[in-house]
Amino acid sequence: MKASWVAEQKTVESSLVSGAELFIQGLLNENVDVVFGYPGGAVLPIYDALYKAEMKHVLTRHEQGAIHAAQGYARVTGKPGVVLATSGPGATNLVTGIADAMIDSIPLVIFTGQVATKVIGTDAFQEADIVGITMPITKHNYQVQKAEDLPRIMKEAFHIANTGRKGPVLIDIPKDIAVNHAPLKEAADIHLPGYQPTLKPNILQVKRLNEALQMAKKPVLLTGAGVLAAKAEEELLAFAEYYQIPVAQTLLGLGGFPADHPLCYGMAGMHGTYAANMALYDCDLLIGVGARFDDRLTGNLEHFAKKAVVAHIDIDPAEIGKNVPTEIPIVGCAKETLKALNQTCGEKGKSSEWVIQLSKYRSELPLTYKSNDKELKPQKLMEILHEVTKGAAVVSTDVGQHQMWAAQYYTFSTSNRWITSGGLGTMGFGFPAAIGAKVGRPDLSVIAVVGDGGFQMTLQELGVLQDWELPVIVVIVNNKSLGMVRQWQEIFYEKRYSHSLLDIQPDFVKLAAAYGIEGKRAENEAEVREALAAALASKKPFVLDCAVSADENVYPMIAPGKGLHEMIGVRG
Amino acid sequence: MRRIISATVLNESGVLNRLTGLLTKRQFNIENITVGHTEDPAVSKVTLTVWVEDDRKAEQLVKQLHKQINILKVRDLTNMALVSRELALIKVLTTPDTRSEIKMLIEPFRATVLDVSLENVTLEVTGDSEKVDALIELLRPYGIKEISRTGITAIPRGTQKKILELHPYSIM
Fold first, then answer.
1. Cβ-Cβ contacts under 8 Å for A442 (sequence gap 6 or more)
2. What's the pLDDT band for A507 if we cut at 50, 70, 90?
3. Which fold has domain B83-153?
């Protein structure tokens, strides 16, 4: 047990401490250094204990902000993000973030207050069945029934959240449980017979994959966020280099393999590069590593990797064979599996012609856009961001056009610098997530790349920047529309722009000023460069409202129902 | 196709909710489900019958169930040699004329009479679902007032075919 803050709280006459104090001790045992939260009636005893314990707490301006901040924190630190909210509306406001963390496998431990046990089930004030509501969107959840169970439950929750396929775990604490007293003692060792994640791969399957690699002429690696979660970047690099396997990445896997490496062919999927998508289409051996073959990646499954033997490495057995029939299934952690592959690798592969072919695609058909002098192109904006930050910043986004441009043009050569809402596609995610990232990694530059639509969903968190003087730079990719919706309406709905154009907007610079934050509007490349350089140098929060061309679309693109080989807009 | 899945679960509140919620989320339709204690009071056993389109869906179902933290073990019993039983309580209308006729009729089914009133009798029958169905059809002409069925519960036989003869899963 950690140096016991709680022990000091014990009065001489009693060896008991309150549930709230056990909660604090549980956080200290797990080395939690920050809690993102918002107080309320049912968590008053817990907030009182937080106050006395001087635990670092970031007060966001909405519970959704707290949970997205915790997600950003978890992404850059690899530690579970901790969230605290009150019962009823406090808890239900977390639901979007919980679902987001579930689908993107982000480790979180979420504490919600609950009405006192004697009134649960009576529709009491601020009562919501948050355990029932979050059952399908958490990895596991608990309601604490006795104060003395809290140490065990917290220990289990942190373990479950941050092992195996990571994910959110929720603990619901009724108010009387936080007040009731229980003995202060260390939780017993974790005993979870129903939860035994497989980390080490089956050596026979590893052997089969090594054999398949020796036969393959056109192998390809598809790497996802599982590589980052397992911290398997080095093993991946060694594996790809040894066999000379071209690498395509998923949206969430960006950064797991250096973008500037000769074997990296970029992001695959709906808005992926021509080379990456053709690699997946044409390959004879597809090795998925910590990726879940999401529909935005595969396009029409009828055409996906049809000529290939599919090998799939994943820590979650349920992902293997879920969408794509798999010949070589390997259940295991990416790091352990790649290590085993590297240790048993045989003859080097015969992929040289294939690498040349893909490299030709990469150089002849790169990502491209048409620039002109009059407008600020959003793609150019991302290139400037990369240039000014030397590609080393943490970039956090919402969902939509700006997200895709950031993924395409802010190329990542370091892992854990890219935070985006991939699976759930949550607007309003990027800005609070950037706050959490800055709290977790104050040493790195953090840029929230947001759309003008998404920013308006969580911009109240400017209050946190002001409060903590956090030098997060908010870059609004302002095209005065819900860009991706507008793009689909243009292409698939004959330009009927139904409720997707946001001509009426606040003055974002004045809005920032209202929070005491400096802001600027930029309408061309020079202004962007100048403002960004100043913002980075100032080490203060900054809002940069960038007026980009409003009718720019994200290309290349695979229309819904089409295969990876049916890309449009490849030539700009 | 019909699959019989057996899940050993921790006897905790909410575990059944978690299990059925998962099936709803993944669009599986439960035909019937039975739950009861096992030899260990901390552990319950759930037997469910589910209709699935193909083997891949069945494999997904088993894997997704297995991911739940308080589900200890999941087995697809469909292709195993197993004994399965269901219990049904059937209330049949009777007249003084038909009462003894019904008694004779149910004898081969080893059904028993649990309750008798002037207008009806209540019968108990145990067996596999086909047997229960057959008895119900036989009794239908007399007029069935009410049926209550438990759904099937199942257990694999002590002796199984060799593993190689069983339906293979990609990983299990």
1. none
2. very high
3. Alpha-Beta Plaits (3.30.70)
